[in-house]
Design brief:
Layout: H1 3-17, H2 23-34, H3 41-58, H4 60-72, H5 83-104, H6 106-112, H7 116-136, H8 148-160, H9 168-178, H10 183-208, H11 210-216, H12 218-243, H13 249-267
Helix pairs in contact: 1-2, 1-3, 1-12, 3-10, 3-12, 4-5, 5-8, 5-10, 7-9, 7-13, 8-9, 9-10, 10-12
């Protein structure tokens, strides 16, 4: 992998990881359009560590109080009832479904799930699910209202993100909207809840697939991760501010359009699955 390719993939990863449009889809589609090889699921998981750093810095206060509240909750009593403890436990249990499914289906995720037909279907399917969430969601709750049940439900939605094209932020924001969070809080809760999963998957792939990843070259991996951090931080700031006053409709339209375009390009032979 050349440096230009690494930079482009890092920018694409950073911009699309936190927008509900699927970073995996774009990291798969962009190389296909440019005639590059698929960088693979392992490479994608590792450069997500750059976007993880962006989350850790941007939400450092929320994450710190959730972690401290979670640790204090083991003392029992009133500590279990605090908003910080509930947020910490919601993030903890929300990681379980995606961790279990990721382990059970890791071979399928790495090899067989990256068909462009699957990605196109996921782009369209999650868009339609997000439409329903926007329609039925009450949008009256904030992150401080997070409970254990929210972690389980949004965690199950996060497991959907293992299907390329679904989007981790898209699936978790959809789940949070169904649970009644307002749009900005849904995004905030989504990012907090996804932090352990991104860290675990990135470190696991870095260790488990270290030979394959190093065959790409250490410098391209580092450069791509750096650019994913820079553009990931910018994407988080944009999305949080955007959803304070606007709906997710622009992302729904984009997903439908991209999924439809992808199916057309596959149909006419411009792209191969």
């Amino acid at each position: 992998m050349g440096l230009l390719e690494a930079i482009v993939l890092g920018i694409v990863q950073g911009l699309t990881e936190f927008l509900p449009i699927s970073s995996t889809a774009h990291v798969r589609i962009v190389p296909a359009l440019l005639g590059w090889e698929d960088p693979g699921a392992s490479f994608t998981a590792v450069i997500q560590l750059g976007t993880l750093l962006a989350v850790l810095i941007y939400f450092r206060s929320d994450l710190a109080r959730a972690f401290v509240g979670w640790c204090r909750s083991f003392r029992g009593g009133e500590h279990l009832k605090s908003a910080d403890a509930k947020l910490g436990w919601a993030a903890f249990v929300g990681t379980i479904p995606v961790a279990v499914c990721g382990f059970l289906f890791k071979d399928w995720i790495r090899e067989d799930s990256r068909s462009l037909y699957i990605i196109a279907g996921s782009l369209i399917g999650l868009a339609l699910l997000l439409v329903v969430a926007e329609w039925v969601g009450k949008r009256v709750r904030s992150v401080d209202d997070a409970k254990l049940a929210d972690g389980w439900v949004v965690g199950l939605f996060q497991a959907i993100s293992l299907i390329p094209g679904a989007s981790r932020s898209g699936s978790t924001i959809t789940g949070a909207l169904f649970m009644g969070f307002d749009r900005a809080s849904a995004a905030r809760f989504s990012f907090i809840l996804s932090t352990p999963a991104i860290l675990a998957s990135g470190l696991f792939e870095l260790f488990d697939q270290r030979r394959e990843i190093m065959s790409i070259g250490a410098l391209p991996v580092i450069v791509s991760t750096l650019f994913s951090f820079i553009f990931g931080y910018a994407a988080i700031a944009f999305l949080i501010n955007y959803l304070k006053t606007r709906s997710t409709s622009i992302f729904i339209v984009y997903r439908l359009a991209l999924g439809g375009l992808l199916l057309f390009l596959l149909w006419n032979g411009t792209l191969t699955p």
